Model the fold of this input.
Amino acid sequence: MTVSDGLKNRVALITGIGSDKGIGFAAARILASRQARLAITDMTDRVHDCAKSLVAEAAEVKSYTADLADRVQVKQLVESVVKDFGRIDILVNCAGMVKAGEKFVEINMADLDPKKWDEDIAINLNTCFNATREVLPHMIKHYYGRIVNIASVTGPLVSNPGSAGYSAAKAAIVGMSRSLAIEVAKHNITVNNVAPGWIKTASSTEQELVGAQNTPMGRAGKPAEVGNLIAFLASDESSYITGQLIVIDGGNTIQEYKGPAEFYY
Ligand SMILES: NC(=O)c1ccc[n+]([C@@H]2O[C@H](COP(=O)([O-])OP(=O)(O)OC[C@H]3O[C@@H](n4cnc5c(N)ncnc54)[C@H](O)[C@@H]3O)[C@@H](O)[C@H]2O)c1
Done:
């Protein structure tokens, strides 16, 4: 089998790379190994350290800081990337969950400060809308685009207590991208969603890691496993797939029995 070059020299903007243990970094590493040209971004300076780790592997990598919940900063970011690289072929919307270095906090809805709700929607939905909205005209101009959103199983398919804002935002990404996929199909742009289950990253909580032991696979997913799916959806090879939600959760959401393992398995 020959290695496909369906990513070679493609310009990819990947958001949410504030840690070398995250899903975005893993995707960036795979795209780099297939010689994509990378623009990576996060809200903290840690993105520059991540870029240093990728330099040896990528055809080209540049890092940018921006708060993607802020539309002015997103506009400046996209202008800078287009100035530096000439175009954007691939957008991987990975920013979300929490700011780099912070922990996800579960708060039941009856106690949820509306400001926290707005923050959850801003971090998990508006970041995706803002980046996509700014990048789209450039993709349309070049008659090519691959947009890959990192949604979640949480929201579109299942949920947990204390996660109303996160769940609403991730489900909204899926609805938003179905409409967009129909709008931009004629411009040779695809829009797809990845729905990871429990993946072991720097922001994994203790209960997520324990939950991961009870998936059919009996373990948490690895960021690189999600990265491989992202790379496929970002490549030329996925050209006839659009508007889809692809689950990568070790079989967790298809398992009907939720009781103690020893009673059934
Ligand atoms: N780890 C999992 O189990 C899991 C499961 C399902 C979905 N996801 C999703 O995958 C994505 C990556 O998560 P991860 O686990 O790799 O965590 P991560 O913390 O490594 O990555 C998320 C990054 O998004 C950045 N970010 C947050 N708000 C931002 C903003 N306003 N502007 C710019 N950057 C911002 C953070 O700084 C952080 O670096 C997230 O969208 C998350 O919701 C993760």
Summary: The longest helix spans residues 114-142. The pocket of nicotinamide-adenine-dinucleotide is lined by residues 16, 18-19, 22-24, 42-44, 67-69, 94-97, 99-100, 123, 127, 150, 152, 196, 198-199, 201-204 (CB under 6 Å). Helices lie at 23-33, 46-55, 71-85, 114-142, 164-184, 206-213, 223-234. The beta strands are 11-15, 37-42, 60-65, 90-93, 145-150, 189-196, 245-248.
